[in-house]
UniProtKB/TrEMBL annotation, chain A:
It comes from Mycetocola miduiensis. The chain crosses the membrane at residues 165-186. This is Uncharacterized protein. Residues 1-59 are annotated as: Disordered. Keywords: Membrane, Transmembrane, Transmembrane helix. Residues 7-19, 28-42 have a biased composition (Basic and acidic residues).
TrEMBL record, chain B:
Residues 25-143 form the Alcohol dehydrogenase-like N-terminal domain. It comes from the Bacteria. InterPro entries: ADH-like_C, ADH-like_N, ADH_Zn_CS, GroES-like_sf, NAD(P)-bd_dom_sf. Transmembrane segments: none annotated. It comes from Mycetocola miduiensis. This is Alcohol dehydrogenase. The keyword Oxidoreductase applies. Gene3D superfamilies: Medium-chain alcohol dehydrogenases, catalytic domain, NAD(P)-binding Rossmann-like Domain. Keywords: Metal-binding, Oxidoreductase, Zinc. GO terms for molecular function: oxidoreductase activity; zinc ion binding.
């Protein structure tokens, strides 16, 4: 009880715990805990044999946070910015620091634009996007989709019904828009 | 090579990609033999992490065999069997020199608030990940390590993130002998955090989740008392009751950005991306810990703001500890625990999925089908 000074009574003694739990107390002494102390100055421990790393070649103007003084010596090179999403991403990096919500909100918006651009581009390729195979939704039939949810008292079932709408909704809307446009054009003729 | 490729929220597939080249003298190219899907990959999969680009390959948990090394690599050679921590780090910056490997300042031009992580969006540096046949590993003399002869592949794989992170989370809880430790989340990290809490000398370990099959695992694997929050009107009140109204001494948030339990929080974050994450578990942790206690945050959150109950944390005089795990610092001690039989990481693996079926793997893990706890990805060449 927190209303008096005593330490709460232990349910199990150390001996009982040691008998029940393999390794109980092996790291009781903080000296055995590798994350303690949090900071430990030991540059020789890392394996680095440089004071500052060689610089990786910059093959295109690499976008970077304005909170960096310079381009870091090493960086990822996958998926350079492209299209409208690329313009948005470069703008977010150039104009806003990580401390500003606009930086992240523009990047999130660029992600959505990127998805639309990529889906449209895929239709001009030999491998168009396939929402059935790419969502893995068929595993609902082979991996107990129904029995994994029903009668399980899962909290996430309250919102999982939204997922298909969020995934398929834009496709249905786009198809509807396309149909309406084509029909309107046909009527004009 | 065959590689998992992100195609937009909730959509992934396997595509042909070029084998990554050496881009820096201390790079290595690793042929991946096993990879895993992490709970935090689901934040990318659901489109929550800013600057996640279509075409990126995810995967920050992987092991493999060295295929090629750059001109300055001294510690690895072709054919070595290696485990690769999820952190990309230089080993020489201000932060690395102080052991903060997950906070390296030399590997992520896109953000200063986070270090480099394989396959984890451009916000974490724009590196492709290991859910593929090959992956570029920067600073090969710093991050990767030879897998000990006695260690099996799945144990090594889980050391690259989930086990190390759970163990680190328990350490950040600053656990003292006999403490009551509550762990929110019975996913891989939560299970390992609960198991590790005993190593630190906990007197009671409580695990909270809403998935009964995971709570069952928490009882059998982590010897924990369990609570299904969906069965209670108010889990915080239950935590107070079970601790005789004191609160737990340490609470670990092993859930992160997509926490369930409050529909508004979940919708505004996971579905509509208006928050960096749904801080339901974190808020429960703040309210369930005793005054003067410690909250350890291992759950991953995005960089945007989240509606955290900071007033309660301040008024209760809490210590909040958090960080991405500096994985390699944990390994020597973790290896001892595995060798001594105190930890058997691969016990939590439930699914082994060929890379070609990656879309099903993500869906099964995301939708929590088939009692999934930890899916391992097997590239076709290793199958």
């Amino acid at each position: 009880m927190p209303y008096t000074a005593e330490q709460p009574k232990r349910r199990e003694s150390n001996d009982d715990l040691r008998a029940r739990i393999p390794g109980w107390g092996a790291d009781l002494d903080p000296k055995n805990r590798p994350a303690v102390p949090r900071e430990r100055f030991d540059p020789a421990a890392t394996g680095a044999h440089w004071d500052f790393p060689d610089r990786q070649p910059e093959k295109w103007p690499r976008e970077r946070s304005v909170e960096h003084k310079m381009l870091t010596p090493v960086f990822g090179t996958t998926v350079p910015p492209r299209g409208v999403s690329g313009v948005l991403r470069k703008y977010a990096y150039r104009e806003y620091s990580e401390g500003q919500a606009a930086h992240w909100l523009i990047l999130l918006a660029a992600d959505r634009v990127d998805a639309v651009e990529s889906h449209l581009l895929s239709f001009a390729s030999l491998r168009p996007d396939n929402p059935i195979t790419e969502t893995g939704v068929l595993s609902e039939l082979t991996r107990h989709g129904y029995s994994s949810r029903v009668g399980r008292n899962r909290a996430d079932v309250k919102h999982q019904w939204m997922d298909p709408i969020l995934v398929a909704g834009p496709w249905v809307l786009a198809a509807g828009l396309l149909y309406t446009t084509v029909r309107a054009l046909a009527r004009r003729r | 090579m065959r590689a998992m490729v992100y195609r937009g929220p909730y959509k992934v597939r396997v595509d042909e990609k070029d084998i990554p080249p050496i881009e820096h003298p201390n790079d290595a190219i690793i042929r991946v033999t096993l990879a895993a899907i992490c709970g935090s990959d689901l934040h990318l999969y659901h489109g929550m992490m800013p600057d996640t680009r279509v075409g990126m390959t995810f995967g920050h948990e992987f092991i493999g065999v060295v295929e090629e090394v750059g001109s300055s690599v001294q510690n690895l050679k072709r054919g070595d069997r290696v485990m690769v921590p999820f952190n990309i780090y230089c080993g020489s910056c201000y932060f690395c020199a102080r052991g903060l490997y997950s906070n390296c300042h030399n590997v992520n031009p896109n953000a200063t608030a986070v270090g480099g992580i394989y396959g984890y969006s451009h916000t974490c540096g724009g590196y492709d990940g290991g859910q593929s046949e090959y992956v570029r590993v920067p600073f090969a003399d710093v991050g990767p390590a030879l897998i000990p002869e006695w260690m099996d592949d799945e144990d090594a794989l889980l050391c690259t993130d989930a086990l190390a992170t759970g163990y680190f989370g328990a350490q950040l809880g600053d656990i003292h002998e006999g403490d009551t430790v509550a762990v929110f989340g019975a996913g891989p990290v939560g299970l390992f955090a609960a198991k590790s809490a005993w190593l630190m000398g906990a007197g009671r370990v409580l695990v909270i989740d809403h998935l009964d099959y995971r709570l069952e695992k928490a009882r059998t694997f982590a010897h924990a008392e369990t609570f299904n929050f969906a069965e209670y009107d108010d889990i915080v009140r239950e935590m107070k009751k079970t601790t005789d109204y004191l609160g737990a001494d340490a609470v670990i948030d092993a859930v992160g950005a997509e926490a369930d339990g409050n529909l508004t929080q979940h919708l505004t974050s996971a579905k509509f991306k208006l928050q960096g994450g749904s801080p339901v578990a974190l808020n429960w942790a703040i309210d369930s810990v005793r005054k003067g206690g410690t909250v350890s945050v291992m759950g991953a959150y995005g960089p945007l703001f989240s509606a955290v109950k900071f007033g309660d944390a301040m008024n209760k005089g809490l210590t909040l500890h958090m960080n991405q795990c500096p994985v390699k610092r944990q390994w020597p001690r973790l290896f001892e625990h595995i060798q001594n039989g105190y930890l058997k990481p691969s016990d939590i693996v439930t699914h082994r999925i060929p890379l070609e079926h990656i879309a099903e793997g993500y869906h099964i893990f995301s939708a929590k089908l088939d009692n999934c706890i930890k899916p391992v990805i097997v590239p076709s060449q290793s199958a």
